[in-house]
Structures
1.
Amino acid sequence: MSPLHPNTAYSPLFLAWTALVMLTLASIAAGRTFNDEAWLPLVIAGMVWLKASLVARYFIEAHDAPPFIRWAVRLFVGFVPFCLLLTAFWGDDIARWTSL
Amino acid sequence: MHAPTNIAVGLDPTPAGHPAWRIPGNKGIWAGIVCVFVEFAVLFTVYFVARAHFPEAFEAGHSRLSLAAGTTITLLLLTSSLFIAMSVVAIRKGARRHSIAWLSGGLVLALGYPLVKYLEFRWNLDHGIRGDSGIFFTVYYYLTLTHLVHGFWGILGIVWVLARNIVGAYGPGEYSGLEALASYWHVTDMIWLIIFSLIYVLV
């Protein structure tokens, strides 16, 4: 697979979909089982990043795109996990900084 | 397999002389998608600021939502996205009838999204969950309703691209419209995966 020879196989898409479904079910199980654990946001942030990266890599084929698109996708995919960790571990500071 | 003739390719060739990149779909759709990224980045920022201010409301609120509805929507959108990606691969291989079949399947599953969302909102109202039921539910409604609007645009796009595919507008050498729609739908799917984790899963 290259920019001029994009993917023509079904199997990578099916494997990516299987991984996305498994990650979704695993995240539900983690949320239910470890809902009191301080490290749960870290796990959820990792799963969000992984799921979004799988969609970007296998469905959107963002790795073949021009640098601007590649970076726009990377920034967006990384934005929520980053904010999730900030809020989970420095929530009080963020609340103080964002108070009017 | 010959490369599509209409795709935009990079002007900076690699040392081997091959173009370095191509645009998935077309420039227009990516201008729109980047705007969607900015829009949801702002909405997610509001979510995180609200969560930092009212952590108890967010911890208590998510357990009142229907996890079954959220999970069903996630599976519908993921599978719809898979089918539409399959449709793009099929047209690249010159299998237009398969492409139409995958796209039709993707449309049927995509239509399940507003249906389940409607049933979820009815269930919410029956259980006293409204937009003014607290900060968590205000955030939940604005995030999910905004996403639903984007879902409608995507569904209209699928209908349009399906009609164009049926009349033979796409083939192995020209499928930028189909790929543009696929890119938009995959981004819509990606954003839902994030919303699902933040609203339905994370305590």
2.
Amino acid sequence: MKLRKSTITIFAIVCGLLMLAPIYFLVVGAFKTPDSVFDLSLRISDFTFDNIKQVFAETNIVRAIFNSLIVSVTVTVVAMLIHAMAGYALARLNFPGKTFTFGWIISTLMVPFSVIMIPLYMVVQNLGMANSYLGLIVPMIFNAYGIFLFRQFYLEFPKELEEAAYVEGLSIAGTFFRLVLPLSKPIIVPLTIGFFTANWNNYLWPMIINQKEELNVVQVALANIVGGGYETEWSVMLAAALISAIPTFILFFIVQRHLVEGVKTTGIK
Amino acid sequence: MKRMKKNRRKRNEVLTAYGFLLPNLVGLTVFVFFPMIYAFYVSLHDWNALSPKVFIGFDNYVEMASDKRWWASVGRTFLFTLIYVPALYCLSLFFAVILNNLKQKYQSIARTMFLLPFAITSVISAVIWMFLYDPRNGVLNQLLSSLGFDKLEFLGSTNQALVSIVVVILWINIGYNMIIFMASIKEIPKDYYEAAKIDGASAWRAFRSITFPLLRGTSTFILIVTMIASFTVFDQIMVMTSGGPASSTEVSVLYIYKQAFEFLNMGYASALAVILFLIIFILSLAQLRLYTKKG
């Protein structure tokens, strides 16, 4: 039995290493000379920072990372606030048309982005938001999934706290912002991770709505580097990919614990 | 007096509720609901985005019926789903069970290893694997050569490209789905397994009669979410092959994208999108039932 357990352990670790292998080749390749990028042996003489320097010098990847940060952070912050408000109203407050409103909101879940991308492009263009941060940000905020999960959370939120606040004379809105929202961390943390990564990952929408090079988000910028020139060396493309990956790698190690815990609350990226 | 206060409170509650919902109601209307209706409206027009729309009724739908390239893309999307969904399901469940058997220390190491690709975005994953798949010198071909096999074309071959892309998407998603399974497996009471052990049940038997049935809810959830995602697959394909070689990886969303933003056939592309919606709608209905049941 003991032997079997160790066999399973070794098997799992070997498979885990296989999962890591592509990342290993990304990192190593980014620091190899163009001639040795396909050479699997590691030699000190093949090691170079030139690729990284070239990416910084010849592409606008840094600006693109900055753009992605602005877009993802803004979408996430605004989404958390308004989705929490909507979820709270649907879970806790009584108002005419509540069932209908909830049903309507949740029905928008059935519309995949790729189905509405063409009319959405027209709407955003007509609103004058194409080729701007607004066009990249605003349409991505509205997502019934966030509202749904906040509502679930508030349905199970203890009522006593709010009742005490009402007795103290706090308004409903005051109670929500001062008392309920600060206690919503268990749902805000996983949703923040979900919204941020989904928006950081977004490629199709920014590609459609923005043609200005200086507003390119990192996914589009990287895809352009790869698809743009047949001249580009693999070592340089890998360096560009590695630089683009750094923000999410850092984030991953910060939030990994929450990612694992959050799975139960959100169950989706 | 008390009654008046109560009434005021009630009015206040209604006003607050509408206020809280307003931003989302406006946003969802403008950016989701209206576009959905508008997609259908545009699909009844001949429109190349530059000249004015011309109403043509259902002509776009008639044209679509004989558009071989469209139906081929739909078929390819089904094929992709047929390979990807079962593979993702089996692999993430398999590794969830395996990892769940490890000691805590090894379990968290292995979990991190499996989950790390999740930190890679779809475009980056595409770049890495294009490098690994390089037909001449790629790591995978070097491996094949050293084992005495012939080199493969991977993305350059009409037979291998789609499967090669499935592998990339599996790679970034297995870890996350595995974690969802692991969380559900942890909720199964240990007594069940101990009882099975006393009865002399094998590990496979215990999995079949305890773990698997009790994961039904999680399984349905993962299957539906994954299915919808694979019906709208786009990113890696766009970057890695743009639908090629010889359209062998041109899935529906990619074809719609090309019709709309490369050929500028907005009306026709919208008609395609409406049909794609109807296909996904059936799947989404199942998803919706799942959500409302949970609520």
